[in-house]
């Protein structure tokens, strides 16, 4: 899966990043490489929690689509 990540310079130095397709999925780091590693981990966690929440609701169907 590929997601767009927006990387921004942080006022205090370093960077912060967000994944617009995953509301609230943000992270930060001192270097660009560190920031990208952190946002990848944050996105993986976001998706895992989202899937767990969906599977806990018996009214929710979880399906995969390929884009």
Written description of the protein model:
The protein is α+β, with helices and mostly antiparallel strands and 67 residues long. 37% of the residues lie in helices and 18% in strands. The protein contains one helix and three strands; from the N terminus they run βββα. Strands 1-2-3 form a three-stranded antiparallel beta sheet, with helices on one face. A hairpin with a 5-residue loop joins β1 and β2 (15-18). The protein is elongated.
Question: What distinguishing features does this structure have?
Answer:
67 residues; alpha+beta; 1 helix; 18% strand; elongated
List the secondary-structure elements in sequence, H or E: EEEH
Number of strands: 3
Structural class: alpha+beta
Main β sheet profile: 3 strands, antiparallel
The shape, in one word, is: elongated
Q: What is the tally of helical segments?
A: 1
Amount of helix: 25-40%
- Low-confidence segments: none
Quote the distance from N terminus to C terminus.
Answer: 9 Å
Q: Please state the CA-atom Rg, rounded to the nearest Å.
A: 14 Å
Strand content: 15-25%
**Overall pLDDT confidence:** 93
Strand order of the largest sheet: 1-2-3
């Amino acid at each position: 899966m590929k997601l767009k990540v927006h990387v921004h310079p942080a006022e205090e130095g370093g960077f912060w990043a967000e994944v617009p397709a995953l509301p609230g999925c943000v992270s930060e780091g001192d270097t660009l490489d560190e920031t990208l590693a952190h946002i990848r981990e944050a996105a993986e966690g976001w998706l895992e929690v989202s899937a767990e929440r969906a599977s806990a609701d018996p009214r929710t169907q979880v399906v995969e689509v390929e884009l």
